[in-house]
Structures are given as structure tokens and as C-alpha cells.
Amino acid sequence: MKVLAIITGPTAIGKTDAAIEAAKYFNTEIVSADSRQIYRELHIGTAVPEEVDLKSVPHHFIHSHSIFDNYNASRYETEALELLDQLYTKHDIVILTGGSMLYIDALCNGIDLIPDIDLQLREELKVRLEEEGIESLRLQLKKLDPVYYINVDLKNPARIVHALEVCLMTGKPYSSFRRDSPKKRDFAIIKTALDCDRSKLHTRINTRVDRMIQSGLEDEVQALLPVKHLNSLNTVGYRELFDYYEGKIAKDKAIELIKRNSRRYARKQLTWFRRDKEYKWFTPQEVPQLIKHIETLIKNL
Q1: pLDDT tens, 121-153?
Q2: Quick check: helix, strand or coil at residue 147?
Q3: Which of 21, 36, 58, 223 could form a Cys-Cys staple with 46, CB 3.0–4.6 A?
Q4: Structure confidence by residue, pLDDT tens digits, 239-272
């Protein structure tokens, strides 16, 4: 039985170090499940592992695509499964690490069969959201897909917009594309996650942001200003500094917002992963116990 061992958790918790330690122990390779580290044009703001770490253990899906690619969780599922087929010819276990919830879910359970979205339609809906507000989009979604309307988080504009994109482009309800049950995988999945005291996590996040600024994040973002409209750049650490360079906010405010939004994202990650009771949780200091847990479960397969 081949095994995919997941090591996840909130941003800045120490997933990279834990995954490298585990990969060395099992003499295997690492597959990244980070939806931003995948882009080769992004370095500092995505906290890509250091070069020495990338060389110490083979990594996949790090700087493998471009910000100009129309990349999503569906493509990730397809490409990651193809990669695992190759890796399993050499290894019985592969480590998956990262914090992108949808990417991990897509690889474990399969992704909804959602068609590619017309970019012009997406921009039109974003303009409507800004000009008319979310209530207008909610009402249209309620009319086009009452089934999904009942279940969707009505406070989440991204989900409202995405569902409308599918409805308007295909003429079918978004709910009609959603799968009813997880896809079966031909490998076992072991789920582990890292967490720590909330104040310590916030300190780790704030320290990481300060380190990014010191490492030249401002210059990295400034160079990307001509393509700031790309969906791949609509992410924490970049959009706040885009606003700074456009004169909308002060530099100190931008840095403060990066820290705040990173903390909020971490909270969202923890909520998402804790809903899945298959995860076994460890602190960043308990990586040896995490590895032992994986090893024990493998022996019992």
C-alpha cells in the first residue's frame, strides 16, 4: 500500500521544517500544497523554502508554474495525481505539505467538475460587487441556484461570485457541478497537522512578516505592479503593498494589514482543518512524535 502523509497547519507554524525532517526520515520526497509557492515569479511574500532546504530533499510544485497560468485546485488535483504515480515507482511514502485547504482537499477527495471561467465575466462580476454591493449578487444567485444559495456562506463574496460565474457561463446551477461523495484513491492517506498556543502563533506570523519586509518584499511587490490585476497576485502580502504603492494607505498601515490578514488566514485554516476529525495534531516541538505516529499507522496498514 502506497501512502500520502500530510503535514499541514496554519501559516508560519513550521510545516516546511517538519516536512523536511519527515522526508529525510522516510527517505522520500515532498509535494507542496501551497497555492502561491507554486508561482516562480513569487519568492519573498510566499515564504518559499530556502535554497539549502530545497536541495536537502526533492520538492515538487515549488516555482513550477507562472503567475500568468490560469491555475486552480482542479488542475492541481490532476497534476499532483500524475506526479504521485511517478513518485510511487520509487517510494512507498510521499510527504504532502502546505496550507492551501482547497489543494489538499482536491488531492484527498477530488475537486468539483467546475468548468474554466471566462475572465471577462469574472471582471464584470467584480465591478458589480464594488458598485452594487454583495446583496445584488446574492439575489441573483438565489434566483439562478436556490439549492446552493441555502448552503453557501452569504457573507463570503468570493464564493457568491464564483457560483454566479458558473451559473451565468454554463446556464446551469452551480450546485449541479458539485460532487456528492469523495473520489476513491489508490493510496492510503495519513493526516497530521501542527498548531500551538494562539499568542505564540501570532508572534510567529508577525515575526515572519517583519523578516519578509527586511528581505525586500517591497521591491518584489513593486516589480509586479504592472500585473497586479492577475488573480494569482490577489493574496496576502501583495495586495496590501499594491494599495501602498497606489497611495491608498501608508506603508506602516500596509505592513500592519499584512500581519492582521495573515492572522485571519491562519484562523481560517485552523477552522477548516479541525472540521476533519482524521487529523492528528502536534506542536512544532513534537515533530519526532508526529513522525512516529506516521510510522506506526503505516505498520498497521
Answers
A1: 888 898 899 999 999 999 999 999 999 999 888
A2: helix
A3: 36
A4: 999 999 999 999 999 999 999 999 999 999 999 9
Cα 102 to the chain's mean position, in Å?
6
Could you count the other beta carbons within 10 Å of the beta carbon of residue 134? 15
The Cα 104–Cα 216 span in angstroms is 30
Find cell 502561491 and name the residue.
36
**Domain 119-177 annotated CATH 1.10.20.140:** yes
| Domain segments of the chain as ranges | 3-112+181-299, 119-177
* Number of residues written out for the chain: 301
Burial label for 106, CB within 10 Å (0-12, 13-18, 19+), is buried
Q: Which residues on adjacent β-strands are paired with residue 65? A: 39
CA distances from 84 to 76, 94, 246, 270, 282 (A): 12, 8, 43, 26, 26
Strand pairing report for 188-194 and 280-282: parallel
SS3 39: strand
Look at the domain 3-112+181-299 and name its fold: Rossmann fold (3.40.50)
How do residues 21-48 score in pLDDT, each as one tens digit? 999 999 999 999 999 999 999 999 999 9
